[in-house]
Amino acid sequence: MLVRLCDAQDLPITGAKRFDVDQARLAVVRTSNGSIFIIDDECSHADFSLSEGEVDSEDNTIECPKHGALFDIVTGEPECLPATKPIATYSWEMQNGELFVELENE
Ligand code: FES
What is the pTM of this model? Predict the structure, then answer.
């Protein structure tokens, strides 16, 4: 189901921002070329917020600030230890200036 996340103007200009919606904890990432990705905000290594991490717009990665795991923001796959499990990625739609995320039905 499509769930409204925010107005387009509330998105980060670049970098990541956390949104809590429908029991999901998401990080919306905007790279320096304007591409938008939505990923789980919770690192798969431990409970730490990926939206506080640094985004690399060239490599399309985000770095967990807690222990330094890198995640591909396109696929969710970890690119280095200590994370070994992927994080979820989500598709999204922009409708009339509002961002919607596709969440699984419960
Ligand atoms: S909590 Fe993210 S790498 Fe450990």
Answer: 0.95
